[in-house]
Amino acid sequence: MTRILSKQYFDNPDFPFHAGYYVIAPGEAVAEHSHEFTELAYVAEGSGEHSYNHGDYYAIRAGDVFIIEPDMVHAYRVGTAGKLVICNILFMPSLLKNELDTMSSVTPFVDFFYVEPFLRNNARFVSRLGLRTSQQLEIGSILDKLIAEQNNRNLGYQTMIKTSMIQLFISLSRYYQQMERPKEAVSDEQSLQMIVDFIHRHYAQPLTLEQISHICGMSASVFSAKFKMYTGRTFIEYRNGIRLSIAQEAILDTEDKIATIALKVGFDDLSFFNKQFKKKTGVTPGQLRQKIKS
């Protein structure tokens, strides 16, 4: 299986962004692959089939929009009767870190950008976004502007691309919020295990208790009580435990600065990170690194 690297698409490592149209001809297929960047895929024309995370193929058609997260395996195939034209927006989350963090305070954005790709792993929760004709026209206009800015590279094009990306995400989040999705009956245990898996995958994101409880359809207070009963810890304690474990591995295995590691795992406050790290390990991050060196 192929893993596509960022350097294959991003000619400027300080601005990891690429946009363009990709055509899959009749009878052709794109084999299973993954990539180290995020991909937003918009089906501009035609129809075909898509497979995600080694799952079954499902039909896609013009107007469908979906997020492919880093390192998730996916594939396409097209029948002999038609073709598939996909607009791919490729970027590293670091490109829009501040913007993504800000938008993560808005539940519809979280639903579209983080929750939908996660739930897509389970066939019961298939809920990808399909745009109506008027919505397709709006999104198509934004995508064409992104590609033009990338290709022309006029003064301020990077700022224009970021601005258009925010506009794109806000519009798609609104559309996703308006979607009618069938509700599936799942047990509390299934919901809680789903949330545990979700936290392990998105531990660095600034998601709130209210947003997490929303995913499984519970109030914050009910979710908190059930989550603590299920895991033995509160949501914050559980998430911070994962963050600190990942940070400890990074301190041991990399030369990254402590502040950089703290930020990568989701701690914006270095002082708070140091306190939590010492509480968990008995030493500060700096002391742990000194032990390794000595």
Q: How would you explain this protein's 3D organization?
A:
Helices cover 49% and strands 19% of the residues. By secondary structure, it is of the alpha+beta class. Strands 1, 2, 3, 4, 5, 6, 7, 8 and 9 form a nine-stranded mixed sheet that branches. Strand 4 (38-52) and strand 5 (58-61) form a beta hairpin. Helix 2 crosses helix 4 (157-178).
Number of helices: 11
How large is the radius of gyration? Answer: 21 Å
Give the CA-based shape.
globular
Strand content: 15-25%
Short description:
The protein has eleven helices and nine strands. The chain is of the alpha+beta class. A hairpin with a 5-residue loop joins strand 4 and strand 5 (58-61).
